[in-house]
Design a protein that fits this description.
This protein has helices spanning 3-7, 11-43, 47-83, 87-114, 116-123, 129-142, 146-159, 166-188, 198-222, 239-271, 275-311, 315-346, 355-370, 372-387, 391-416, 421-430, 432-445, 452-461. Helix 12 runs antiparallel to helix 14 (372-387). The relative contact order is 0.13. It is built from 18 helices and no strands. It is mainly alpha-helical.
Length: 462
């Protein structure tokens, strides 16, 4: 088999792929485009406001991936139970996604409300009193969005594996549009609304999350969803299923928490370079979300197209789909490299920042663009391994890699040698090369080719 036929499919496969990923990509695109506009709106207030919101959002960067790790870990079973037509198990898995993430959310809320000054202070290395005050104000309000977001996430990561990707797109898109409109009204005081600055941005986020959840609830009651049942049925204690799910979820939970905490620590090391570095990295993070639009879209497609085949016990078909997705992701990565390279010179011009900060932002976006293809490839490998329940490898290439390679490198260069922010950012991003090689090694071992629903069935009998 030549490379072209192995990694590039016929039109039928791509039509199926586009049906799945188009709503997801549209959702992420609208969401991140509005986030970019949101960031620009805050950016018009000044560098202190950008740094304040960027510092407060580091807590969200720790919280949300942790919640997602639980839901996506459980979604391994959602995809495969759907493939094997096990409806009662689907319902129990949805209940799992409601209950366990909410426990984590409550913990984050308690810590966030009790220690807001410490959370912002970790990233406000210059001790800027305005950044500190604005960051605390923003965090204490935006924390209220965590509960509706957690419930919405349970819906999102149940509907997507069932190939109902258009429903999360509609809900998220409406929520983000509400957020954009309210930002315009509350940040600047337009249309008779008070001018609230960063507080207005936080209030808009809370309302948008509530609207998003409300839409999910309407959809749930109006549509005949395959996992729809009496509320009490979601919490029937199937200890065998809970045990099997937790065995997959817990390592992913630890992985995401470790990965997110590492990212927060690296951001803190970046912040040692001053307010300009914080502003530049905050802007770069928003712009580079474009990479994650396609990475997460293709990742979700991987969970569906690979996980569904594994659930049907079609292991060769699962590998064939995985190869096609890898080939497609490489092409997408190259396109994103070009687009981000152009954005690096255009986007910084929209911000009310100094010339030096604008220059640093351009360089960091260009660096992000250079390694975009590898970022997308590693995400696809991540989702392939996870679809087959290979959580050990997932932890190694993600969370463990961060702490063994990226964090030490960032500490040595940023904290010990205090190198320039551009050199530091490049060095940290360049570790994606090694990460990609490790991913290829584990993929080639083919240990991910496994039907978990058969394991679950055998476990239940035992």
């Amino acid at each position: 088999m030549n490379i072209r036929s192995k990694y590039f499919a016929d039109k039928t496969f791509y039509k199926q792929l586009f049906v799945i990923i188009t709503p997801i990509i549209l959702q992420f695109f609208i969401q991140n485009f509005i986030n970019l506009l949101d960031n620009i709106m805050v950016g018009q207030l000044g560098e202190e406001e950008i740094a304040a919101v960027g510092s407060a959002n580091q807590y969200y960067r720790l919280f949300y991936p942790t919640i997602v790790s639980i839901c996506t870990g459980a979604s391994i079973y959602t995809s495969q139970f759907f493939g094997s037509n096990k409806i009662k198990e689907l319902q129990k898995i949805f209940g799992f996604k409601l209950f366990f993430p909410m426990l984590v959310t409550i913990l984050f809320l308690v810590v966030g409300f009790i220690f807001p000054q410490h959370i912002i202070g970790v990233f406000n290395k210059e001790g800027n009193p305005l950044v500190q005050a604005l960051g605390e104000d923003y965090l204490k309000i935006v924390l209220w969005s965590y509960v509706p977001l957690t419930i919405s996430t349970a819906f999102t990561f149940t509907l997507r594996p069932l190939k109902l990707t258009h429903l999360p797109m509609v809900s998220s898109s409406i929520g983000m549009l509400v957020n954009l409109v309210l930002n315009y009204c509350l940040i600047y005081g337009n249309f008779f609304f008070p001018r609230l600055g960063v507080k207005g941005a936080a209030i808009a986020t809370v309302i948008a999350r509530v609207v998003e959840l409300f839409i999910y609830i309407i959809v749930y009651y109006k549509k005949d969803l395959v996992f729809k049942t009496k509320f009490k049925n979601y919490f029937i204690l199937d200890f065998s299923l809970i045990n099997n799910t937790l065995r997959k979820v817990f390592p992913l939970f630890i992985n995401e928490f470790a990965n997110s905490f590492a990212l927060v620590l690296i951001f803190q090391i970046f912040s040692l370079s001053g307010k300009s570095a914080v502003s530049a990295i905050t802007i770069t993070d928003v712009v580079s979300q474009m990479v994650f639009i396609f990475a997460n879209g293709l990742g979700t497609a991987t969970s569906i197209l690979v996980g569904y085949k594994l659930g049907q016990n079609d292991l060769d078909g699962a590998e064939e789909n995985a190869n096609y997705l890898l080939g497609y992701s490489l092409i997408v990565g190259i396109v994103i490299l070009v687009v981000l390279s152009i954005a690096g010179f255009v986007v910084p011009q929209f911000y009310n920042i100094s010339g030096y900060t604008r220059q640093v932002t351009t360089y960091t976006i260009l660096i992000q663009a250079l390694f975009a293809p590898m970022l997308i490839l590693t995400r696809i490998f991540f989702f392939i391994l996870r679809s087959g329940g290979r959580v050990r490898e997932v932890v190694l290439i993600n969370g463990l890699f961060m702490w063994v390679v990226k964090v030490p490198l960032a500490v040595i260069l940023g904290f010990v040698f205090k190198v320039d922010i551009i050199i530091l950012f490049f060095a940290v991003e360049a570790t994606r090369v090694l990460n990609t090689l490790i991913c290829i090694y584990y993929y080639k071992q083919k240990k991910w080719r496994i039907n978990l629903t058969l394991q679950s069935k055998n476990s239940s009998r035992g």
